[in-house]
Amino acid sequence: MSTEPVRLLDVAELNPRRFTTPPVDASLVTFVPMRAVEEESGRLSSADTRTWADVKKGYTPFQDGDVIFAKITPCMENGKYALATGLHDGRAAGSTEFHVFRPSEKLDSRYLLFFLFSPEIRRSARMNMQGAAGQLRVPAHFFKELEIPLPPLAEQHEIVAEIEKQFTRLDAGVAALR
To answer: Each residue of 30-51: pLDDT tens digit?
Structure first.
């Protein structure tokens, strides 16, 4: 069955600047520098916590369920994208070099993450980078017309489960080779 694509920004908010539950200045939030985003895995690692007062200005806010996407070279090309999960009180602040996607109820976060990892999206994002050499970035307007296939949510879950199953097999094969 073919699924008609929809504009990504019709089913996900780009770079939201607020949280579902706003923190107070003394609240602890997870702090996510670029180095805390693993390449090609979709996971965050070695993040720490800071008070909201310390990070509310000059950093990018995001929350559990959001997908972060490195916009600067070479991090974008290296696959520094992740699903935000397990954040302290569900909130984080991180590098200003992230684009943040907040999926609507029609879009599974993991499905979006795998979509952004696709070679076609990465190639297109690379071709649309702007800026000076060494400081190239994927501009926010790149995502304005970007389309994503949007099957029903149950089918998105099935697709994600199959992708994760294949990654598990791949990980087991790599471990066996070691």
So the answer is: 999 999 999 988 889 867 999 9
Check: CB of residue 71 under 8 Å from CB of residue 98. Answer: yes
Q: Which amino acid is at 132?
A: A
Q: What is the pLDDT of residues 68-86, one digit of tens each?
A: 999 999 999 999 999 999 9
Nearest alpha carbon to residue 69 among 158, 133, 3, 146: 146
Note the pTM of the prediction, 2 decimals.
0.90
What residues does 6 pair with on adjacent strands? 148
The H or E element containing residue 122 is: helix 119-127
**What three-state secondary structure class fits 148?**
strand
Q: Which helix H or strand E contains 130, and what residues bound it?
A: none
**Distance of alpha carbon 47 from alpha carbon 43, whole angstroms:** 11
